[in-house]
Structure formats: structure tokens, C-alpha cells
Amino acid sequence: MGPPSSSSAPLPPPVSSAPRTQPSGHDHAARFAAGRPGDPKKPARQIDIEMREPDGKMVFTPDRIEVRRNEQVRFRIQNHGELDHEFMLVSAAESAAHQRMMEQHPDMAHDEPNGRTLAPGKTAELLWMFDKSGTYEFTCLIPGHREAGMTGSVTVKK
To answer: What are the residue boundaries of the Blue (type 1) copper domain, all occurrences included (predicted)?
Structure first.
């Protein structure tokens, strides 16, 4: 067997072969920096997000999104990869804190107002109201995935 290709880094191994079913233990009453859960009775713009692992990287497509302040968005999130992935909509500070928590609890799964964990081949929706201007992240906080490139940004304009 020859040396590994220098053009792509190897994907991190799955954290566990067991299903990711440990509850998250988050406070659902907490206020989110990136806005708030949307209202299903109101119209929303749909944005499709794909998660996958091409060429040794882990990516969201698209990885940059622009929305208007007070715009409601329905994210349709599809895992077209071979590994479990997450879509967590957070501020940079929330991302760093949550990543530390995920390192301590790597089998934590999410079904939160601002995030979902998806097995390969699965699809989920997340309805979100962006009520504050600023730049926020969507990221996969499964250990090793963010470091392998699985992060994106949402810019909320006035």
C-alpha cells in the first residue's frame, strides 16, 4: 500500500458505532444568540443545506447564507454523507462552549430548536426567525468534524 495522498486529509473516524441517542440536556427555555424558533403559521424562505464528505473534507453546501433581519427561514437539512453530522445554528461563543461539551459527551445527539443531528441519508427541517443583525455560524460539533471544515456562516442584514 502506498503513502496517503497529500491532497486530502483523512476523515476523522466515527466517534462511536453506537447510535447517537444520548439526550442533549440543553435548556430549551434559553434565548439563542442567532434568533429564535420560527412560527410554522407564518411564511418562510426555504434554504436547502447539504452535509457530506467529499475528497477528505467535511462540508456544508452552501456554506454562506445571507438573510434579512426579521426574516423567517426554513432550513431543509440533508445528510448526503457516510457519517452522522449535525447542523447547529449558533454564535461563535456558543459554538466554542458547545464544542467543549461535545468533546466530553461525544455521543450526544441533538433535536433542538437551533440544531439537529442526522444519520446518513436522513433529512430534517429547522424553522428559524433571524431577529438580530450580525454574523452567526452553522456548524457540526461532533468531535473532529468542525476541524475537518464542517462550518458555515449566516449574515443577517438590517
So the answer is: 50-157
